[in-house]
Amino acid sequence: LPGAQWFEGAQMNYAENLLRRRDEHVALVFRAEDQVVQSITYAGLYAMVAGLVKSLRELGVKPGDRVVGYMPNMIETAAAMLAATAIGATWASCATDIGPDAAADRLGQVEPVVLFTVDEYLYRGKRFDVIPRAAALAARVPSLRKVVVCSYAGVSTPDVKQIPNAVAWGDFTAPDRSGDIAFEQMPAQHPVYIMFSSGTTGKPKCMVQGAAGVLLNHYNEVVLHTDLKPTDVIYYITTCSWMMWNWLLSSLMTGATIVLYDGNPMYPDLGAMWRLIDEEHVSIFGTSATYLNYIKSHGLVPRKDFSLASLREISQTGSVLSAEGWQWVYEAVKADLHFNSIAGGTDINGSFLGGNLLMPVNAGEMQWWIMGRKCAAYGSEGVPVVDRQGELVCEAAIPSMPLYFWNDSDGTKYQNAYFTMYPGKWRHGDFIQVHSDTGGITMYGRSDSTLNPSGVRIGTAEIYTQMERIEGIADSLAIGQQWQGDERVILFVKLAPGHELTDELKTTIRSTLLRNASPRHVPAKIIPVADVPYTLNMKKVEGAVTNVIHGRPVLNRDALANPESLDHFKDLPELRD
Fold this sequence. Notes:
globular
């Protein structure tokens, strides 16, 4: 570890395992904010994928090529992923709420040959034109041979003239959808997904993951820990930028029905998701601490307004939920369900911690390790500890750990990402505590400088890139503040001489991040400071500032070039509300 080899000599195909069921049972249901509802059966999905497979092969796409998506969470996105992996290509994706610059920083690195995208998407009742964004993205990715543009909710034929080498979905998909798919049989460790890191220190790292490792890991989590059955309907609030999208689509291997929702989960009102649960008879609902805290703070009591008769499990991930939040779920939602809190990461396309149907649920404690994980909390002395906080460390290999990082020929990036603190052991970057009395584990959040608003990891480097373009900003520092059971982004700005932090400048900052990065990059607070701390080798010191604003000691002041700058961040009144 790293470098473990799994299932040597085995041949398989990822998509073939997800498309084992080929009958009239509903496979996917697409729901949009405007109540557009589409569905497709397992037989229909197989036929849709077969048409895409034929077209991709006619285009010359072969095993090992990269096919990518810049898409909302819809049926066509799932079909494109399945078609790509059916022929042995490697899939990567970003949601359309990410700006073209941030999308290019991810997708462009892996030199894709085909891009799937869409003409528009809907958010909070407003339609957003994706064509100009897709054109800008395609212009930055010279490896593309074809851009395939589908219509959002199938309401029109997209106008693709602005995008080079583009074709509408209906013109690309082979009309003859009959016959079986010739699934490419590949080595078990053949790359199936490329997942992206948060981009904390520059462009996001590209984590390449093997087909068998991801498949078996998801089967373990979806079937054994989540207890998903063919008769279930499962729904997770996610986008195709997040690994929970990949995790959710692996539910196809069970023969269950998956609900794909695109839009704001609080639109048109706070009851939108609970109404969806009743209408689609959802039995397993996946969400984040952010969502639960939001509706809790606004006084919604779902059990009073909705039946929720089908609901038997809530799966929660993304960020830490307080013990009070767990208690609220049982009081305000349903008393006889399984609250299955899970925690892991994009890095392994899955979880380290999750549910256990044989153990009680204790508020604020994840039930136990996912099976097959040799993990522990490591103290500062580098050995496992219990009943006190420590680093989440994995001591043995997991099949879904990255095979390698893209463009990391000697493995240096991979090694530095996880194995420098505890050689030969994976340091994940989370603080946890293992409880000796209950056997549960409490998660305390990130131990590194990655931001985690709404449970989605984002990189500070993407914020800094945009700040450098704004007149009047000399420097900036972004950190995450624990706030009301979630994490909010705080942006500190050092102003250039002669400039003030006016309301107009704040608006410029927010609009720039919204336009060029994503809504999650927009800070909750923008605060002026006199200086930004740096290390002696001129790296910004986010972790020390995070410690200061949370009242924790700073242990590495001697490593700073300007340690006095930390004094600017103490006891800031702006962080109290």
